[in-house]
Design a protein that fits this description.
By secondary structure, this protein is mainly beta. The chain has 1 helix and 24 strands.
Length: 313
Amino acid sequence: MENFALMNRQVQYKYLPQGNEQGASRLTSQGERSPPFSSHQHIKEHQLSYPQTPTMKSTTYSLTALAGLLALTHATPLPAVVVAPTDLALRQCGSQWYNPSSYACRAGADSNALCPVVNGEPMEECAGACYTPYRYNCNGTDLSEKPRKASGTFTLTASNPDQDFSGQPIQASGNHFWVGGHAATYCPSNVGSICSSFPNDMTLIGNGYMATVVPGGQSIYWQKDGALAFTQAHSSSQWNLSYYGGGIAYEGGGYFGPNGEDLVTCPVVPPGSNTTAWQLFARLAGVSFSSSCVGVYALVHDQNITAGAWQYT
């Protein structure tokens, strides 16, 4: 029997982008790793080509002989090839490539973990989980919810380092809440000197209410479109009510929606104005927002006064 020779063995390496520039796996708040996203994937193709079968004296072969020939064939392992991605904006975190505008590389219990950037701020890492310090505390091994404010008054400021409005106060005006601008207040002249005792241009709130002294008070609630709103003085009407009461305020942390939803701010032209302002909303279930809206943290600042105005308007 004539021997067969393995000829024209070719090994090719192909470098194919996967199409997800944000790259890399990230951790969930429960510590589970989502499927990894590799910015690039090396595909190795091992192609074998064989010559045409030569003319044989006999075309009848036994299965035993063929099995023997196959046993002599040994696969050669292909060498590992590491190629840096062509996108120079990507960075490396361990063996993963990621976009620093979308992720941060955190060294912790889960070595070189990637945590997402939310509202312009990279999340922190705690024992394999990514979290925001505006809602949680980490003792090094476990996450725990921050204490919720049970009493007292506070102000809010907006935080999103990617936006120009970051650091501006959240103000009450037109029965809604806005990032920046001025608080709309009113104090009747017949109440005497009490009007001069209120702070200047401050929106002060408590748990579910505006910190005012007007008889009957003013309540805070959430509208069906997710907007944070407050009632008019001398009225309990709550237009387009979705949730009664304010959001969840954490001690030394942030302010979130009625069920802990994240907040978002959208460019809106207020009634009676011809300029655009950033209005505050919560991402309530079933509510969608325009692509012009951006996520925002509302930071809680405790105050030692009981009222910020006679009434807000």
